[in-house]
Design goal:
With 127 residues, this protein is α+β, with helices and mostly antiparallel strands. 35% of the residues lie in helices and 14% in strands.
């Protein structure tokens, strides 16, 4: 099932870098590792399976951390799908903050990019 997703242009500034850097201290060690892998994947994103392989972690550990990062609004489903090691399609997750995200994509399930003060789910973020 293919769908076209709009590409958004974002110019990252020093404040974007600050926002990106400010997230890491608030994440647990494993969450921070998962976030780093997804962020470094840029607009290509990373599937849970790809993160599992890179970090040598179990599926349950990685998927629960991705879910938590999504609830925080710092990662979102890119709309891209790739095959896992088992041959099933999986969502590719992308970072919603910082310079690691070169060209964010709308996921079709929510806002295409968070408004100032909102996370990817349209919820207000604490300062």
């Amino acid at each position: 099932m293919g769908r076209l997703l709009p590409q958004l242009e974002i110019n990252f500034t020093d404040t974007s870098q600050e926002a990106f850097d400010s997230i890491i201290p608030h994440l647990g060690r494993i969450e921070a590792e998962v976030f780093r892998v997804i962020s470094e994947a840029g607009s290509r994103g990373a599937t849970s399976d790809e993160v599992e392989v890179q970090l040598e972690m179990r599926h349950q550990t990685v998927s629960s951390r991705i879910w938590a990062l999504g609830r925080r609004g710092v990662v979102t489903d890119s709309g891209q799908r790739r095959k896992t090691r088992s041959g099933r399609n999986a969502a590719a997750w992308v970072s919603t903050v910082g310079p690691a995200l070169e060209t964010p994509v709308a996921n079709g399930n929510g806002p295409s990019s968070p408004s100032r003060g909102e996370n990817a789910y349209g919820q207000g973020m604490e300062p």
